[in-house]
Amino acid sequence: KQFLQQQDYKSKFNLDEIEVLERKVGPIKSDIKIGVVTPDNQKAIDAVLLLNEEIAKIKGIKSSANSLKFGIDEIKVKVNSYGASLGITESFIGSYLSNLYLLKKKAVSFDEKEMLDIKIKSQSKDSFQSLTKTQIPLDNGTFVALDEIVELNTIRAFEQLLKDEGVKNFYVVANVNPDIITSTEVIDILKPTLKHIENSGVKLTYKGEAEKKAELKSDMLLASALAIVLIMIAMLYLFNSFTETLIVMSVIPFSLLGVLIGHEIMGLNLSMPSMIGSLGLAGVVINDGIIMMTYLKKAKTMEEIFARATKRLRPIMITTITTIVGMTSLIFFPTGEAAIFQPIAIALGFGLAWGTVLNLIYLPILYTLTHRLKHKELY
Hints:
Blueprint: H1 2-7, H2 9-12, E1 32-37, H3 41-56, E2 61-66, E3 74-79, H4 81-85, H5 90-101, E4 104-110, E5 115-120, H6 128-132, E6 135-137, E7 143-145, H7 146-149, E8 150-155, E9 162-164, E10 167-176, H8 183-199, E11 203-207, H9 208-239, H10 242-249, H11 251-266, H12 272-296, H13 302-311, H14 313-332, H15 342-371
Antiparallel strand pairs: 1-10, 1-11, 2-10, 3-8, 4-5, 6-7, 9-10
Helix pairs in contact: 3-8, 9-10, 9-12, 10-15, 11-12, 11-15, 12-15, 14-15
């Protein structure tokens, strides 16, 4: 982008706009995508340009663009009161002008070799002055100049229009540098501008990461609730105790601290893949917790607690280390399209590491406190 600015290609090649857009992997192609919906084209243009201007002022924006693609200007013809008094209609004007200015096939002829199409077109079809002075025939056999019976207004036309479920949309898109700012923070900064636009009668829709986050939020809440209920039912059947079930399940929320620490160390913000990884982490840390609790249930004294917890140290550590080593390349050296899975690996890797500490230390301590175990010599 800096190179293009230095070369001044915009003025050198007489360009209206030049942008550099980064190709993104995964389902989200733009971090921010705001749709502008209004039947008034001028309002839509003003809103889009205002959003682009405000977004460009925000630090951390890597690129921004919009879907405004202007085509050739159109001339709108409207019959005035004088033309209406002469019996002129817009459909008649349109039909008459199309015969004059559009390439028309009028006849077919033959020569010695082949069939020929005979077409006609106006020699002055590109002259606006000639258009305004076009002589329009009347019913009485006389003619009148076009500009005397109609109003000619030039309107800005679009090369293409994007529609979403049949509704015309104009989009503003932007990508952010996640090391500096997130898309949610950008939307928060833009709130005064967005509110001003909405107050002018323009409807705004949010696509991109904001749309996917809203979808993911409802899906994740449902999936998390279902997963917790199923895990709880399985452990109640296994332990036949609400206390021991809740002790093991208490590891799940505390293990999320490892997810936060991992993202902080790697310099990444929490994202949708991070949430998916956190959901998977719940099942992984519970496995070690169930094994530890199964051993602890048979302990009667503090000494037995230490002995049985120590026996599970090596198996749990080996399981954790092999899992983390397997994800090391994805955590620290993601490349290409694999980068989208890095947050998942960070959530699983760092969360599992912290969950292991909880299962080896926190779980035995909590079990001891809830069951009021004493030292052997007190018996």
